[in-house]
Specification:
Elements lengths: L1 E4 L5 H14 L3 E6 L9 H10 L4 E6 L5 H13 L4 E5 L9 H11 L4 E6 L6 H14 L3 E6 L3 H8 L7 E5 L5 H10 L12 H17 L3 E4 L6 H8 E4 L2 E4 L12
Parallel strand pairs: 1-2, 1-8, 2-3, 3-4, 4-5, 5-6, 6-7, 7-8
Antiparallel strand pairs: 9-10
Length: about 260
């Protein structure tokens, strides 16, 4: 399964973009919707609109914005309107949010809702991060969405701890030295020596990670961020009479999701 992150600035714009992507690239299974406070549109409103139009959408829920009761109400509304999966994050500057406790509460009320959680390979050691992920899985989460990877060796190290859970491996193009410096400063990413902030390197690495992830029956989470999603997908996947196939010769037909 391949998901694409879409920034929810205006509802009609993001709906149009989603339909355009699905029409041109049928291998896209659905969309992930972040909740960005600088925009008035909330992720869950977009997800409900997409669901009503037959599109798969997974909204981000910032747990710092909810009480236990308001979170339960919001999740029940989402589930009743066809949104069956959510990605929960603590939220920037969340302080003492009880992430594990809130996951446990959602799961107790909506046991059939799929709760995904974040895996950040850069904020702490591998063992510490996977220990935290395990706490969230034990509370009722079903799988993880990772921060973007730029190093196959690091991805493989984490994959050995994720054999039995659904993983959406993050990918994001970094196409300038300034963007690379931002990832290093803000997200503490350590880029491999082979990294180059070029289109060619990012396309090649993306093909390698996608092929690897899908061969393990895992999933991929595309985050174009500042790049137009149609433009980035066009770099990665060719369009041919409405049918999509990856532009790289490494990609195999079994990539297409069922």
């Amino acid at each position: 399964m391949i998901l694409v992150e879409l920034i929810p600035k205006q509802l009609q714009d993001v709906m149009d973009e989603a339909l355009l992507l699905r029409t041109n690239f049928p291998l896209i299974s659905g969309f992930n919707i972040p909740d960005l406070l600088k925009y008035p549109l909330r992720s869950y409103d977009v997800a409900m609109a997409m669901s009503s139009s037959g599109l798969l959408a997974i909204p981000h829920l910032r747990l710092c914005d909810f009480t236990l009761d308001s979170l339960a109400i919001r999740c029940q509304e989402l589930y009743q309107l066809g949104v069956q999966s959510i990605l929960v994050i603590s939220g920037d500057g969340a302080g003492q949010v009880d992430v594990v406790g809130m996951i446990r509460r959602i799961h107790s009320i909506l046991p059939h809702m799929s709760i995904y959680v974040a895996l950040d390979p850069y904020r702490q050691s591998l063992d510490a991060e996977m220990g935290y992920v395990k706490q969230k899985l034990d509370a009722g989460a079903v799988g993880v969405f990772t921060q973007p990877f730029f190093d196959m060796a690091l991805a493989r190290s984490f994959s050995r701890h994720c054999q039995d859970i659904p993983v959406f491996w993050g990918l994001s193009p970094v196409l300038s030295v300034a963007s690379q410096a931002y990832w290093e400063r803000v997200n503490r990413v350590v880029f491999p020596p082979s990294f180059s902030a070029t289109l060619e390197w990012n396309i090649g690495f993306s093909h390698e990670l996608i092929e690897w992830a899908l061969e393990m029956n895992h999933h991929v989470y595309m985050m174009p961020i500042r790049l137009d999603a149609m433009e980035w997908m066009g770099h990665l996947f060719k369009r041919d009479g409405g049918a999509s196939h990856p532009a790289s010769p490494k990609v195999k037909p079994h990539w297409n999701p069922q």
